[in-house]
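Hi U.,

Before I forget, here's the chain from the pilot set. I'm dumping it here mostly so it's searchable later in email.
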Amino acid sequence: MIQNNFLGPHSSVILDDECHVRLISSFVSNPTSVFKELQEELLWRQDKITLYGKTHDVPRLQAWYADPGLTYTYSHIQLSPLPWYPLLIELKKQIEKHTNESFNSVLCNYYRTGNDYVAWHADDEKELGIQPTIASLSLGGARKFVLREKKKKTNKIELNLGSGDLLLMSGRTQEIFEHQIVKTKKEVEGRINLTFRRIIIS
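Structure:
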């Protein structure tokens, strides 16, 4: 059950007794230049995904940067790490300092137009361990982010994530809730989303 709403630029919402989300508006002070550099310099790739026997392009571009030796798999897509790009390291250190968390990887998604999106999912892969903390940084055009309870899908909240906003998800959020970036017919600017994670080495 959602117990409170976002009320300001540094607000928290309790989705369930043990599910916490925090929004920090304008965490990055120069999001336009950060977006431009990452758009031009990251090694974006177009992956494919197979659903119901049909293979499609993933509706966004991706890049995964991580410490050496790590791997990450979701939706049968296995990612091998690219060596850390300097600006990603700088952003990681800023977020770690603010959150007191430690991250060893970042999944970068580039939503080129409103036709690019990500469907309902939870970041609950086994590599992330139990109750992972996900730090999600938005850059570029604002897009609608929706969270909903897996068992009671009418229990949801919608957020308009702007450039430079940092969204933190922790506790049992990934276990109990799922989220998506909504496809839109409106003309929107390109958006880059960086989700910093900690991969558990077994």
